[in-house]
Amino acid sequence: MWEKVRKFGLGYCDLPTMMWNVSVFLRLFTVNIDSKYKKGIPIFVYVAVTLSSICYYYIYLFSMLWFVFVICPQTGQTLEAMWALSLGVPSEIGTLRLFYMKLQMQFCSRDQIRSLTDDLLEFDSKTLPDHRRSRNVLKHLRDVKKRAIVLWLVIVGTGFMFIIKHFIAPEHLTDDTFAPYGFGSMEESPNYEIVAAMMAVCVTFINGFSGNMTAYIIIITGYVEAQMLAVSHELENIWKDAQDHFRTTRNLEIEINKDEAKKQRILNQYVSDRLKVIIAQHATLKQFYLKVRDVLKGFLGIAFFVLIAGLLFNLLGGLRNTYMHLPFVFLQIAMDCFIGQRMKDAGIVFSRAVYACGWENFDKNNMRMVLIMLQNSQRITVLSAGSFVNVNYKCLMATIKGSYSSYTTFESSVNK
Q: Family assignment (predicted)?
């Protein structure tokens, strides 16, 4: 039992273990990304998720919209409406992503999510465990898992802070912005206890699924990035490896006789064999880039525009009132842009590695292969949010700037 718990830590950073980590948590939300897991998900999990979804939609969608569009216009509570929207709109990311995943897995002709997961695991199984490339991949995957753990802790921790707020200040609900429709006064029992329990369930459901889904996205993008960086390292050292290979294969006679032509043939044969392997690996990774982009464009598209709206409502509601909502919103936008930039940077690193591989020492045939690789590496695949905008650092800065500009435009209307 303890050994299984330890696998969730940084001591186990290989892809199969990380996929197992995230699949265990996602099954708690009725999502099975592991095609080899045939035990099925217990019925009580489906019941719990269904009840949590009903609670969420009742409080943070129906009651929130009722408060914003019915109560607030009557009372003139514009600022309170922004508070409610800053809580309700960003939280939609969890249910929308869950609905999108279930739609993909149950009703699409080809389950892209499980297919991508299986393809990555199969590719990883072909990597020699004691090879330098494998060690480099594991080194990068440790950073990926650290990234996933930190984001998971922040997202889930934000929800935990929301829940314990009720116990620290017992006279307050998890959120006092609005009372759910039909409950009347929250100062009366059992209204207070019922709504407090429902809000705790909603927060656990939304933050839990959002944290696990974010971890899954970080892992699949991080693995492709790690493989691309490892292949780039192999390409950069290909000429040095060829010389080491020549020295360690008993070519002393060639060195003594100064047979430079034969030496070059041996070196270039080694380079040719390695280049063919690297070209095949790069082509496979390019396919993974395209698959990851196709799978994630729906997730990122749903999340990105919802989170941008949520960020704007957080600002309009006043940070003194929405400071606990902001980490949940901003960190997910920042992480989407961060992983998009990292994948783009990995492609650029490979392109630069082509220049730095010592191609000037190769024969003409090997130079042609390097030229083909150079041409292929120029077309860098980038992640996009719903095919509308590429997610990277430039996108993050534009989002912050646009949100602040919108905030300054609408601030005077909200604070009247």
A: Belongs to the insect chemoreceptor superfamily. Heteromeric odorant receptor channel (TC 1.A.69) family.
